[in-house]
């Protein structure tokens, strides 16, 4: 599936919930099921600044795709990362850079998260796009 | 005994709904809510007497100036300062600390020492670190014990003739510890050091007597004591304020300006450059009148009851650990629940209408000391109730169920 198709699927899933409790419970579940990041990647360098909780994000190139792994010490944050990873991991760098982020609003995540002091969600997306930009530039250079 | 329901009716925001739930506001340590008299006084100022102060000969300017200076007098009286010109209006606690730290630049030399405590807010750490960088003075820290109390024996050891200023908070924002400032001040004076007290977290709970304390500087913000944001007070002893150079240059702080040389105005104007927060300054007086009308003895009695009840109820929750258990503390409870990040709890209880603070509370060294990422902090004011504490307990239980 491409990024747009995955985003539509996620929006669909969230539209089934009647209230915020169910939505949060789902995010918590996603967080619990997020595949673990390798310990060697849980470094100070990989910590995303601007989050109330600690977030580690690691991007790697696998053929023409970018693969992301991540972790957080807070479960809600982990659930949100899980949504982002499902959307962006195993996609082409150029597609990640070009991706529209409107689906975040559609699933009602931003209204809940931007209220917290630091805009962690924005930082996460920025970091994902930065990885894609770096890999894209590297690929261009080797052509 | 206070009639809490009557008091609550003074605060319109307390009947607001948040996320569809009745608001339970337990983030008073960050800022207090405002009573109707304060809200009205702000409108009244702009509707009736708005004009720039200390400048015009016209009537409105006189009225505004009088109201501003009357407020200064109220604050002088409230904190028992010897002179009204020892009471400087600032934009808040942070500004006051920076003003003093900046003023000490020319008074320190390499090897001199500045003492802070392990319990400080970043605002009472960073300006002194910057001062030390400028002057090559050395920053020393009074350590704390596991209860979150300063270890006074260690303080004694830090003091010497190299100590030039000691700067500690009256009450810790993160843990609620009330520090033995009278002892801290007299011991600092014994070695010839000046003392600044950060009273930001104290003034909502008590009435400081700066002459009895004998502190050299006492700073606080209006917004934590029912007043508006953007206004605060720096009290300084006359001698010290005369010794310190001006912090900012501009209008209102001068005696005479020529391109060759400018002479400065006397106290307090030397430190009050530019058009101040006039409405804020006037209305801080209104807020102080309001709190004195309720009475600080009554406020303390109500808050102590909330602290005791809140502590007891919170400890009923399995795995809950209170951080900061000083013998002498105010109505602040910082806590963690085993295996759950404070941010997760804070987010869920917010959805249930409970406003608490989560995170490091701008006191990262304290969190590092306890080796935790942060805490959940419930800070109570005199207008809070036991029923609200019950609602918080229910919300936390629900959050724990969802998160574990």
Automatic annotation (TrEMBL), chain A:
InterPro entries: Fe-S_metab-assoc_dom (IPR003808). Belongs to the SufE family. PANTHER family: SUFE-LIKE PROTEIN 2, CHLOROPLASTIC (PTHR43597:SF5), SULFUR ACCEPTOR PROTEIN CSDE (PTHR43597). This is SufE family protein. It comes from Flavobacterium frigidarium. Residues 11-130 form the Fe-S metabolism associated domain.
């Amino acid at each position: 599936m491409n990024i747009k198709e995955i985003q539509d699927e996620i929006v669909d899933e969230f539209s089934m919930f009647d209230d915020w409790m169910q939505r949060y419970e789902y995010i918590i579940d996603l967080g619990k099921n997020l595949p673990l990041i390798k310990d060697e990647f849980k470094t100070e360098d990989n910590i995303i600044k601007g989050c109330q909780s600690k977030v580690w994000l690691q991007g790697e190139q696998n053929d023409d795709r970018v693969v992301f792994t991540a972790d957080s010490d807070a479960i809600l944050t982990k659930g949100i990362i899980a949504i982002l990873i499902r959307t962006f991991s195993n996609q082409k760098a150029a597609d990640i850079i070009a991706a529209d982020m409107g689906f975040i609003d559609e699933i009602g995540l931003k209204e809940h998260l931007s209220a917290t002091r630091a805009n962690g969600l924005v930082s996460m997306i920025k970091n994902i796009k930065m990885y894609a930009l770096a890999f894209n530039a590297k690929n261009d250079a080797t052509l | 005994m206070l009639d809490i329901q009557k008091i609550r009716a003074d605060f319109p925001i307390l009947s607001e709904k948040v996320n569809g739930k009745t608001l339970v506001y337990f983030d008073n340590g960050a800022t207090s809510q405002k009573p109707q008299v304060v809200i009205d006084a702000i409108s009244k100022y702009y509707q009736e007497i708005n004009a720039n102060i200390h400048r015009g000969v016209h009537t409105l300017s006189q009225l505004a100036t009088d109201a501003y200076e009357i407020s200064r007098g109220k604050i002088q009286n409230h904190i028992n300062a010897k002179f009204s010109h020892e009471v400087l209006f600032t934009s808040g606690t942070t500004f006051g600390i920076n003003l003093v730290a900046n003023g000490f630049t020319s008074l320190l030399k390499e090897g001199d020492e500045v003492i802070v405590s392990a319990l400080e807010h970043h605002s009472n750490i960073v300006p002194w670190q910057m001062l030390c960088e400028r002057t090559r003075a050395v920053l020393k820290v009074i350590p704390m014990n596991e209860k979150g109390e300063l270890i006074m024996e260690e303080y004694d050891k830090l003091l010497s003739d190299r100590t030039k200023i000691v700067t500690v908070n009256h009450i810790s924002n993160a843990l609620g510890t009330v520090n033995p400032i009278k002892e801290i001040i007299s011991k600092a004076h014994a070695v010839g050091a000046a003392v600044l007290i950060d009273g930001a977290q104290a003034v909502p709970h008590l009435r400081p007597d700066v002459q009895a304390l004998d502190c050299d500087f006492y700073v606080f913000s209006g917004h934590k004591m029912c007043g508006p944001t953007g206004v605060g007070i720096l009290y300084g002893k006359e001698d010290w304020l005369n010794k310190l150079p001006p912090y900012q240059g501009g209008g209102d702080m001068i005696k005479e300006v020529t391109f060759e040389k400018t002479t400065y105005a006397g106290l307090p104007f030397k430190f009050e450059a530019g058009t101040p927060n006039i409405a804020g300054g006037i209305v801080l007086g209104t807020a102080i009148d309001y709190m004195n009308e309720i009475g600080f003895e009554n406020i303390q009695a109500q808050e102590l009851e909330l602290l005791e009840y809140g502590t007891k109820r919170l400890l009923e929750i399995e795995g809950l650990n209170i951080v900061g258990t000083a013998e002498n503390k105010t109505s602040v409870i910082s806590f963690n629940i085993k295996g759950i990040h404070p941010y997760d709890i804070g987010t869920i209880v917010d959805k249930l209408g409970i406003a608490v603070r989560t995170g490091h509370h701008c006191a990262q060294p304290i969190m590092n000391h306890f080796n935790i990422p942060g805490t959940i902090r419930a800070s109570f004011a005199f207008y809070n109730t036991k029923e609200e504490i019950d609602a918080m307990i229910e919300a936390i239980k629900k959050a724990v169920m969802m998160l574990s």
